[in-house]
Amino acid sequence: MKSTLIFAGIFLAGLLLGSQNPFPDLMAVEGLKTCIVDVLLLLIGIGVGADVTTFTRLKKMDRSTLAVPFLIATGSILGTGLVAFLFPLVGFHSGLAVGAGFGFYSLSSIILTDLQGVELGTIALLANLARELFTILSAPLLVKWFGGMAPIASAGATSMDVTLPVIQRYSGSEYTLVAIFNGIILTLLVPILVPILGS
Question: Taking a C-beta distance cutoff of 8 angstroms, is the pair 197, 100 a contact?
């Protein structure tokens, strides 16, 4: 729990620092965030590749784990649709589109802003960012209450990058490749499903 609080503290410090915009020239550099995420993925890949037992464990896992991203996609879309239906702030159809962001807040918010305006784009940004933050903060409890797959489901598309270290730490290295596979599939689905459901 200590490391989770550290993650939250770092995130809040980033928000405060970002609001002051202390490095305007640095923030304007195109692709800087992508490069940082790429380096993170490289380091995680090295760690996974060095642990040869991970591949052995993945082979021993049930083949039904390949269905994980599709089950998560279905649950995410239907869940947000239900919330939008019960609390009709944006409407059922738009709620489905927000859920199809799967935690990929930057892309889904841009698509929905173009399709339906700034209001829905902002809702998509906040909802999907909250999903990522919730996973980082609650991963230990999710594993304790629901098992090792729970943080992967909670993380959505971010299970392959931002939330992967947390998943790796609390779910165990045997779930790392499942998390990466899940993140890749959901990331590929976002630019397909969000425009379909949001139009």
Answer: yes
Given a contact cutoff of 8 angstroms between Cβ atoms, the answer to whether 108 and 98 are in contact is yes
User: pLDDT tens for residues 76-85?
Assistant: 999 998 988 8
Residue 98 lies in a domain: yes
Question: Which residues have C-beta within 8 Å of that of residue 3, sequence separation ≥ 6?
Answer: 169
Q: Between vectors from CA 103 to CA 186 and to CA 189, what angle results, nearest 5°?
A: 25
For residue 167, is it within any domain? yes
In this predicted model, what pLDDT tens digit does every residue of 97-152 receive, in sequence order? 999 999 887 778 888 888 888 888 888 888 888 898 899 889 999 999 999 999 99
- In a domain, residue 53? The reply is yes
Number of domains in the chain: 1
Domain that holds residue 67: 32-198
d(CA 175, CA 9) in angstroms, rounded, equals 26
